[in-house]
Write a structure and sequence with these properties.
2 domains, mainly beta, Neuraminidase, globular, 27 strands
Amino acid sequence: MAAPRWLGLRGPAGFVAARTGWSVGQAYTALLGFTVVVFLVGVGIPPVLRHGDFVIPRPLSFPSARRAAVAPVHQPAAPAFSATRVAASAPAPFADEGASVAVGSEVAPDVVSSAAPAYDDGGSFGTMVVLAHVPSPGSPEGVVSAPDGSFWVVTNDRAASGGGPSLILHFDASGHLARSYPVEGQQRGRTSGLTGVTLGPDGAVYALNVAPPIVIRLDPVTGRQVEYSHLPDLPSCVTAVALTGCEPSPVDHQPVPRGAAFDRSGRLLVTDGGQATVWRVPAGGGNPSIWHQSTDYAGDRGLAGVALDGAGSVVLSVTTSLLAVDGTGAVYLVHTKGDGGAGDRMQLAKTPAGGQPVGLAIGASGSVYVALQGANRVLVLAPNGTRRDELPHSSSPSEPRFDGPVGLAFRGQSLLVTNQSPSAHDPAAWTVMRLAVGETTVSVA
C-alpha cells in the first residue's frame, strides 16, 4: 500500500497541507497561530481583553524597590503600598481636590482664573526660562500642572540610578521640589521607567510605567499607589491568528505606554508606542479596550503624545514608524463619534526627518504645540495643520536651550517643557522650562 502523501512532507504541517490543499508555508503559519492562541487560553490570558471588562484597581504587589535619595520637603514620607483595595466607583477624596479636570498634560480652563495667577506665567512670546531642576535619576519625561500652579514630573531613565525606582515628583509653583514619590514594583533589569503623567477628575495623579506596562494611580496625600490598568501584549496581525484584535505591525512589539489624556466621560486614553494602538480605560479603571489603531504608527517608537481639542477630537503625535523610512514623524487628528469611539482620521502635519515629535498641548486658539525632541524645538501648528512658528525664538548662547524636549503642559499663558537630554545624559540639562506662548489651554468641557 502506498504511503500517505503527507509522510513525505514536513510532519504536522505536511499533514495539514495534504488535507487542506494549502502550501506547507501556509500550514506552518496556521499551526503557529493556533499554538499561540491555545497557549494564551491555557494559561488564562485572553489574546485581547474584551471591551467592557472591568476589575477593581488593585494595590501593586511587586517586591519593594529602594527608596530614592530625594526626601519629602514639606510633608512626611509617604507610606508603603496599602493592602486595601480601592473602590473604582468612588475614588477617595484628596486634600487638594477641587473642580479641576486634567486633559492629557493640560489643566482644563474651568480652573484657570481670569485674575492674575499667584505664579509668574507671562513674558514675551517665545521667551524661555528655567523653572526647575530635576534630581537623579533625571531624564524627565511627562509633566502636568495643577490649578494652584504646582506641577508634576515623572522620570524615565532608571540606568542613572543603577536600576533604582523612577520618581513621581511634585514641584511647587515656584519650581522647588515639594515631595518625591518613588515608584515600587518596576521590573528589574529594565532601564525604561515612567513616561506620561496626567491629573484625573478625582484629583489623583496618573502615571504611565513601561515595565510592567501599567497605569499607576497615586494618592498625592497618602502616597498610596495602585494599579489602575494593565496594557495587554497583542499578537502581531501578520504572524498570529488574532481572534478579537492584534498589533497592526509586521513585527511583534511589547506594549509601551507613552501618553495619557482623560476624555469628557472620565475615560483614560493611553497611547501605546510599541503596539500602534490607542487604548481606552473605563472610568474608574480596569481592563482597557482598543480605541484606535493604524499601521502608520507601527514601530517601537510610534505613538507618543495625546491631547483633546475643543471639539473633543483627539490629536496624536507619532515619533516615527516603520513606514517612515525617511525618519519623519507626524501629527494626526482623530474625530470622535457620538458614543466616544474613534471616527475619521486626518494627518495634520508631517514633521522633518529626525524631528521626533513627542509631547502635545492645545491652546485656546486651537493651535497645536508639538515638542520635537530631535530638533530641540517646539513646533506651533494652526488648527488646520499649517506651520505657524517654532519656539523658542532666541538663539543667543546666554539664553536657556532645549536638550531633548519631551513633555508639554499648559500653565497659565505658558508651556511647561521637560528637558530630557537623551544623548548627553547631562544632569545639568534635566530641567523644566517655562516657555511663554501668550494663551491658555483649550476648553474641552
